[in-house]
């Protein structure tokens, strides 16, 4: 969740010859959850366990759906105009 996986090739900023602040990869980050600013230092976003598990379940579902999309037919379910 969240940050790019370093195992998936060079990040776009690195390919462009740019560098990020060290805190992008290391240290703490901020997010807003339930109206509160939350500081976290890992990929959990400091979410409650039940919420993090649901996010993980939904992410797996999205990945499964994404595996069915092709460049030739990105939206096969879309109704064409005139039908």
Q: Which descriptors apply to this entry?
A:
83 residues; alpha+beta
Order of helices and strands: HHEEH
- Class based on secondary structure composition and strand pairing: alpha+beta
What is the CA-based Rg, rounded? Answer: 18 Å
Helix content: 25-40%
Overall 3D geometry? flat
Please outline the major beta sheet: 2 strands, antiparallel
Average pLDDT value?
Answer: 75
Any low-confidence stretches, pLDDT <50, length ≥5?
Answer: none
Number of strands: 2
End-to-end span in angstroms?
40 Å
Q: How many independent structural domains?
A: 1
Percent strand: 5-15%
Discrete helix count: 3
Major beta sheet, strand line-up: 1-2
Descriptive overview:
This protein has 83 residues and is an alpha+beta fold. The chain has one domain (6-66). 31% of the residues lie in helices and 12% in strands. It contains three helices and two strands, in the order ααββα. The protein has a two-stranded antiparallel ribbon with strand order 1-2. The radius of gyration is 18 Å and the shape is flat. The N and C termini lie far apart (40 Å). The mean pLDDT is 75.
Task: Walk me through the topology.
Elements: H1 12-15, H2 22-25, E1 29-33, E2 36-40, H3 49-66
Antiparallel strand pairs: 1-2
Q: How do you describe this structure in short?
A:
With 83 residues, this protein is α+β, with helices and mostly antiparallel strands. Helix content is 31%, strand content 12%. It is built from 3 helices and 2 strands, in the order ααββα.
């Amino acid at each position: 969740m969240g940050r790019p996986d370093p195992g998936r090739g060079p990040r776009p900023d690195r390919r462009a010859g740019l560098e990020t602040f060290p805190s992008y990869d290391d240290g703490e980050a901020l997010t807003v959850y339930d109206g509160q600013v939350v500081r976290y230092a890992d990929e959990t976003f400091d979410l409650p366990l039940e919420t993090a598990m649901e996010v993980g379940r939904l992410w797996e579902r999205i990945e499964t759906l994404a595996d069915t999309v092709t460049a030739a037919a990105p939206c096969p379910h879309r109704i064409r105009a005139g039908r």
